[in-house]
Amino acid sequence: xxxxxxxxxxxxxxxxxxxxxxxxxxxxxxxxxxxxxxxxxxxxxxxxxxxxxxxxxxxxxxxxxxxxxxxxxxxxxxxxxxxxxxxxxxxxxxxxxxxxxxxxxxxxxxxxxxxxxxxxxxxxxxxxxxxxxxxxxxxxxxxxxxxxxxxxxxxxxxxxxxxxxxxxxxxxxxxxxxxxxxxxxxxxxxxxxxxxxxxxxxxxxxxxxxxxxxxxxxxxxxxxxxxxxxxxxxxxxxxxxxxxxxxxxxxxxxxxxxxxxxxxxxxxxxxxxxxxxxxxxxxxxxxxxxxxxxxxxxxxxxxxxxxxxxxxxxxxxxxxxxxxxxxxxxxxxxxxxxxxxxxxxxxxxxxxxxxxxxxxxxxxxxxxxxxxxxxxxxxxxxxxxxxxxxxxxxxxxxxxxxxxxxxxxxxxxxxxxx
Length: 418
What we know:
3-stranded antiparallel β-sheet, two-stranded antiparallel sheet, mainly alpha, 13 helices
């Protein structure tokens, strides 16, 4: 019976890791994919590598914490471990079906709390401290990003403005056989070079976005590997190293498959994310997660990043709606278009354009009004920067998923003798 339970535990732990990969890849690489810095396939590969690295180096402490810190005694029997993992994986699977990344830490802690309440051994002060940080951190992420979006984003966007070129970002340059350049020991060695049309500024900006996304993936692995295997490791059924490798492989499988929907949600559906926006979201959320991890708190990684995206979009939209009757020059819109804010009043954009170069196409007529519906020559519309309906769906499901895990685990361990 124990061997059968162990086999079931491995399957359920793999299922949990699979859903963790599907959920957290969207959060870590959604901004990078939304800004076309990387493809979905590249995002999945990088997520796999850096999540495993984070789990192998930092995640060990988190495994120990979740395995013994929330409940008094030794609660994770083989049957209890399978039950907790079942509700974690089931709840996360629901979130991935709807294309909404849920907080793995909240879901895992919720399932363990359900076990603790049912057994009467829950350490309430520890849980309350964790929950308080879950409330404070997303609020901080929202308002920091909102302030950047309203007051600093346009200047930041101009400084980081990068025109995306066609074709690959980098290529391998063939060495010149007639000289010693590119030769190593008389053998030609291809060297990396900028792709056709790629500028150094574009390359640096893209690499910065990807680097921050990789850091977020590292943080996600450090905090979430434990959610897949902590019950099995805590019960002694699985060693620490084997558990981390199992979780890392399962996360990679999810990152390369079901993560595509959450990448769309986090990169495109909630708000448009050009390069500057991707940097803001990644920096704010990764910094908060790092601080919480240093404090020993299992970070609600998904919720923080989601609220950062929402805050940035809301801040940019509120800036546009608060600038009626101003000309494009007064608010920094380049003459002839560009992805910059527009003067919005009564649902139309008032543009007064002069001396538009031939390269921008036919010369527009002064005083032409354009409806704000989708992207216009004046920049993205408010509905593209902040989408309340999609945001509401994301926030409701992100709170519903941990609640399902908590209530389900409590009912199971309260009424079923495990």
